[in-house]
Amino acid sequence: MAVAYDGAIQDLIDAFARLPGIGPKGAQRIAFYILGADESQAQELADAVMTAKAKVRFCEICGNVCEVSPCPICQDPRRDRSIICVVEEPKDVMSIERTREYRGLYHVLGGAINPMADVAPSDLRIPGLLERLKSDEVKEVIMALDPNIEGEATTTYLSRLLGPLDLKLTRLASGLPVGSDLEYADEITLGRALTGRSEV
Amino acid sequence: MAVAYDGAIQDLIDAFARLPGIGPKGAQRIAFYILGADESQAQELADAVMTAKAKVRFCEICGNVCEVSPCPICQDPRRDRSIICVVEEPKDVMSIERTREYRGLYHVLGGAINPMADVAPSDLRIPGLLERLKSDEVKEVIMALDPNIEGEATTTYLSRLLGPLDLKLTRLASGLPVGSDLEYADEITLGRALTGRSEV
Known about the structure:
200 residues, alpha/beta, Helicase, Ruva Protein, domain 3, Dna Topoisomerase Vi A Subunit, Chain: A, domain 2, 2 domains, 8 helices, 43% helix
C-alpha cells in the first residue's frame, strides 16, 4: 500500500519541509498550493530563489546582505559615520532600520559566541570591526546583540576587547516591552527594568 | 531611509510570503536560510518546484494527483474495485491511505459545495463519479468529506443524487477523536458520539 506521494510531489513536499519553520503538514499544504497555482507563480518562486542566490552577497564593510558591495547603508553619505551598531544577523539591521530611530552605520557579526554550537569569537566578523575602529571617525559602538545567553556572552567579550579603545561603548536597554503587562514580566526583565529606571 | 531589503532579497521574501501558512517573519527567516544554504540546496528547491509543475497531473479516473494517469491506485489490481471513497482533495486520499484500513478506490471531487466561495456542484468532479457508478462493479460509495458545513452540504447533495442508484451509501463516523477528553468535546460532536454509540 503506497503511503507516499508519487516522486515529484513527494520531492516538492520534502524540499519545503527542509526549510525552517515549515512542518510536514505545512509543506504538504504549500506543495498542493503550488500544484494548483499558475505556472507563472511557480516560475516566479523558482526564479526568486535562484536570482537571490546568484545576486546577493555580503557587504565587504559591514557584512550586511546586499546586491552591490559596499551596501547602500555604508555608501549613504547622509548616515552618521561616528556610530557603529553591532548586530548578530543581517535581519537585525532591518529590525533596527524599521524603528527609524537610528542614523548611524552597522556591523554584522554573523552570529554570537555559542560554545554549544561551536561558534567561537574567531568565527565572527570581529577583525573587520576592529579594522573599522582604527579610524578616528568612530566615536560610539552600540552593542545590539540578542538579549539571550549567547548575545550576553558576545556583549561581554566585545566589552573587554573594545574597553581599552577611546570609544563610548553602549548597549540596548533592557526592560518591559511596550504594551506588555507588568504581571507577566519575568523576574530578570523586571529586575532590569527597575535597575534601568529613568526619572520622569 | 531604506526600510526594504535590496531587490533580489525582498523578491525572495515576497515569493515565500505569498505561500499559504507563511507570514512575513517566516518568509524572512526562510529567505535568509536559503541565502546561507548551499547553492545545491537552493537549486534543489527551485528544481522541485518546476519539476512538480511539469510532471504532476490529475488522474483521468479518480482525480487524484499523479505522474502517470491513471494513477497507481486506480491501476493497482489488488485494490477492491467494488468500493469508491469520495473525498474533497488529493491530500485526503493520502490521509486515508495512512490509516491502512482501506483497500478500495477513490474519487476526488476537487472541493466541496460552498456558495460563499462560489463553488457549485457543477464545479466538482461529480459527472466523472456518476460515469464510474454506471458500471455494476461498484457496490458501495463512502462519502468521506470534511465534517464542516461545506462537507455536510456536499454529503447531503450526493446522498440525494446517488440515493436512487442501487448502491450502499455510507459516510465516515462522527464521534470523539481518539485520545481526546470528553470534557472538552463540543456539544455537536458529543451528540453525534451518543447517537452513533456501538455495543461493546
